[in-house]
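Input chain follows. Return structure tokens only.
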Amino acid sequence: MASITLTFIDPTGKEHKVEAFPGQSVMRAAKSAMVPGIEAVCGGNCICGTCHCYIEAAGGAALPEPDDTEAAMLEATPEPRPESRLTCQIPVTENLDGMVLRVPASQH
């Protein structure tokens, strides 16, 4: 199975290249790679907002819109933006290869 490369950029500008695999969530890939700021306190249950990231424009086109639960949780996160997503709600697929995600300063 081919891996997918995701790039997380922390608030200091440091890039963290992450190897992800289809079937796992973006959050699980980030946690496995120990990306700073991706805490995922709730374990991926969409109830804490501690896996919040901003999706760079090119990658956002590959994603469906957040469902109502995720949208409500995003509204409760510090610094929400139109490009905000909870990484626990994004399944890794081949079309995410090369996606860039920015970790909000509030999570660092």
